[in-house]
Write a structure and sequence with these properties.
15 helices; single chain; mainly alpha
């Protein structure tokens, strides 16, 4: 699927550059933005959170751990973590040094351990051991900001939210949706462009595209199926064959980031930390929350 779309769109992309230089009205930008979303939905019908989780608490913890590291590294770390501390009560009572040692591979492990201990205690003491399903409650937890809160709300509770990570912010600017750098301002600007019902899946699609094609340093412009809609076409490699070699994950024939990807993911599961391929399928809880998102 990806290969055929790449070949069909690589040539027309060149014509987009001249069009993109013309002044664009706000209405035209909104229409183009929504078309990009529709195109991304066709390109990534399997877009999903790339953190393995079976409950809101696991997703909350995994998202906190994902700061300044890859989702793959988090997914390789959390099986041992959740086996030892399966509930907020268990994690709140953890010996800090033991918790730090388990999450060490994710980096910044001392600060992350403090956040996990604090948020677990807060969930236990203030929310009866249940992760809250409201933004205003989630952001009061240690180590939890709007980005993390929106990830949890959208994927564990089915509450629409825009997740502005580095990939989303970069592409929102490249697509001309906003010039803002501050994540909250990016979130507010994008929220005005798209209906609320699209926010969660839009986030997944844009992040997927940023990780697979529209990279930070060397975007694969010549292999981008939405190049004709992008005013930033040409900031990366435009030669189709060279761009094809820049594609990552399933687009480049490589494993994804999840050890337990959803059944509809077309790529290969990532390997566990010991180098073995993970087995098993998503739990019903995860399938339900992702479907709701």
């Amino acid at each position: 699927m990806a290969e055929s779309k790449v070949r069909k769109t690589a040539v027309p992309a060149v014509k987009a550059v001249a069009k993109a230089k013309k002044p664009e009205s706000h209405l035209a930008m909104v229409r183009r933005a929504r078309k990009i979303n529709r195109e991304l939905a066709e390109l990534y019908p399997y877009a999903h959170p790339e953190l393995d989780f079976d409950s809101p608490f696991e997703l909350l913890v995994a998202t906190v751990l994902s700061a300044q590291t890859t989702d793959l590294r988090v997914n390789q770390t959390t099986p041992v973590l959740f086996a030892k501390y399966p509930t907020p009560e268990d994690m709140a009572a953890a010996v800090p040094e033991e918790l730090e040692e388990i999450i060490r591979p994710t980096g910044f492990f001392r600060a992350k351990a403090r956040s996990l201990l604090g948020l677990s205690a807060a969930v236990r003491d203030r929310f009866d051991g249940e992760v809250p399903g409201r933004l205003e409650d989630l952001v009061t937890l240690p180590g939890v900001g709007r980005k993390t809160a929106n990830v949890v709300l959208g994927n564990a509770f089915g509450v629409p939210g825009i997740t502005v990570d580095t990939h989303f912010g970069r592409l929102a600017r490249r697509f001309g949706w906003t010039a803002e750098e501050d994540p909250e301002k990016v979130e507010a600007a994008v929220a005005e462009i798209f209906p609320k019902s699209e926010w969660t899946m839009l986030s997944h699609r844009v992040v997927f595209h940023g990780r697979r094609i529209c990279h930070s340093r060397k975007p694969a412009c010549g292999a981008c199926p939405i190049a004709s809609l992008c005013p930033s076409y040409g900031v990366g490699e435009t030669d189709p064959e060279k761009a094809q070699k820049l594609l990552k994950y399933e687009m480049g024939g490589q494993p994804g980031q999840r050890l337990r990807p959803p059944a509809h993911y077309p790529g290969r599961a990532a390997e566990a930390a010991n180098g073995e391929a993970a087995t098993g399928t998503e739990t019903k809880a995860t399938e339900t929350t992702e479907g709701a998102a």
